[in-house]
Amino acid sequence: MKHDDTAANRVHFSSAGAVRRPRPADPARPTGIQLNYANLLDNLAEVGAPHLIGLRASGADIGERAEHLRKVLDAVTSYVKAVVGDTRYHAACTIHDETGFLANAASDIVGALRQAANRQAEDDTDPAGWMRRYYAETAR
Mind listing the pLDDT tens digit for each residue in 11-47? Predict the structure, then answer.
């Protein structure tokens, strides 16, 4: 029996149009606001958890917590701005961007911790300093 080799060598052109057709987005890959959310999780994972503080926080401990919160709040603020911006883009109504209040609150929180870190650092070097400051504040 003779074997026909022409069928094996035949080129199929059924996939030629696939090059010109746009491919649907990969459902496993985040897009749009989902990408912002994935970036938020990556940024928070990169920041990590704060270290534990022993019985008494030093100025350096408080300063490290302030820096940790700055990184976390920057990541969250960035994500919130992206969500509000995306929502404003897709909404048929007017949505005001109030994310500046979040950025201000984050700045106030970090600033308060940094001030506390500075005061604690002074107390760490001069243990009687907190007493003098306490009596000066209560005497007002």
Answer: 555 555 555 555 666 667 778 899 999 999 999 999 9
Exposure of 13 by Cβ count < 10 A (0-12 exposed, 13-18 middle, 19+ buried)? exposed
Residue 41 belongs to some domain of the structure:
yes
Give the domain extent around 46.
Answer: 30-138
Tell me if 77 is assigned to some domain.
yes
117: amino acid identity, one letter: A
Q: State the Cα–Cα distance between residues 79 and 106, nearest whole angstrom.
A: 14
Which positions ≥6 away from 16 have C-beta within 8 Å?
Answer: none
pTM of the model: 0.70
The per-residue pLDDT for 126 is 83
- Using alpha carbons, list the distances in angstroms from residue 90 to 70, 83, 100: 30, 11, 20
Are 116 and 105 spatial neighbours (Cβ–Cβ below 8 Å)?
Answer: no
Number of domains in the chain: 1
Which sign, positive or negative, has the C-alpha torsion 78, 79, 84, 85?
A: positive
